[in-house]
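Allow me, if you will, to draw on your knowledge of protein folds for a short while. I have a record of one protein: its chain in single-letter code and its fold written as discrete structure tokens. The full record is reproduced below for your convenience:
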Amino acid sequence: MYVCGITPYDATHLGHAATYLAFDLIHRYRKIQGASVSFVENITDIDEPLLERATRDSVDWRTLASDQIDLYRSDMTALHVLPPQDFVPATSVMDLIDDAITVMDRNGFVYQLDGDLYFDITTFLSDLPLPLPDAITAFSEKGGDPGRVGKKHPLDPILWLSHRDGEPGWESSHGFGRPGWHIECCVIALRYLLGEHYLESTGTGPSIDLQGGGSDLVFPHHFMSAAQGAALLGRPFAKDYVHSGMVGLDGEKMSKSKGNLVFVSTLLSDGVDPVLIRYALLRDHYQSDRMWSADKLSRATEAVTKIRTALAREEVVAVQSTSQAIVNAVANNLDTPAALKALETWAQETLDGNSLVAGGAGELSRLIDALLGLAL
């Protein structure tokens, strides 16, 4: 599976955390089933937001990226998220991007406009996930340039941006410059999941199993990445796409522009137990848009305290039916609210002292650690 990673210009907020917890659940579930999981995540360590933040703060963009990547890794470790096998910076694959653009050009999907290279999207517009006017608006809001004069279609995305003054650049067969956002993810996913010779097997062959990220990536990012992957492979880019919901704060959308982001690192520095953050986020279904509030942490604290107390008992309610209910819930499209409800019910019944038997708490504890990432 390939999960779209961070653009390292700011710390990990709870929206990021909710997304990476969702794919951590998939990762854990497939491993428990006995599957061999190849999990790749990128780092968009060259993009407009990073360069703009570095300029604003008068810091080298590479230093800013390095610091934020380290903080992200620390946050994910604290939240008990299993790391990917490959954690790939975009700046490390410029030669791969160069090769991929060459192949797409040979396949007839590339054109030049004032030194920049664009991807011709028209072949794939029948798969557009929203009406064209809405797509053009979304494209503009998320880094696209639908109004640029000379483009074949407003939705054509940039593949290679010729060098701009004050920006970093890389040598390539397409000139000195830097890549667009979508081609970066497309190339990293295909190279690291299908192998170094993926460009040699076109038409027939494997696709990646799962492409994932937040629901804000459905369009344009995942649509564009899929189109470019299909242009390279001659077959679908991915078999399945999974998207997590957005997290707001106290009734408002959480965003940098509003200044209402809640950062994982801030909660941790305030002394919040990371298991409480994870538990609070798992109480909502991963696909749902949800609101964060201080009350969520309070309710999570109450529930975790009760569960920990029950798990420490020598005699508990028999765990078999509860364990099966948790597994069934996670198997049902990662229904973590139902899984946690079963766990909380077991804890309350144990504390009530009904039908207790010796042992079993350790078995349940190991299950929720392995399956839900809750080390209680």
In short: The first strand starts at residue 2 and ends at 3. Residues 14-32 form the longest helix (19 residues). Residues 175 and 330 are 49 Å apart (CA to CA). The domain at 2-247 is CATH 3.40.50.620 (Rossmann fold).
